[in-house]
Amino acid sequence: MKIAIAGDHGGYALKEKLKVYIQEELGHECQDYGCYQPEACDYPDYAFLVAGAVANGVCDFGIM
Length: 64
Fold this sequence. Notes:
The chain is an alpha/beta fold. The chain has one domain (about 1-64): Sugar-phosphate isomerase, RpiB/LacA/LacB (Ribose 5-phosphate Isomerase B, Chain: A). About 40% of the residues lie in helices and about 15% in strands.
């Protein structure tokens, strides 16, 4: 299963931990759509990317 994952700066640290858990413990593939650093950013920009990946069949599920 391929999972799209993203979040804003407030969830950056949790997103990074969740990616490791999904990949190493659950054995699923993660596609990270951002943000890529803990500096301020707007989540709608990344939500749009995750939604597009799921809607277009690139990923099976999305986590924001």
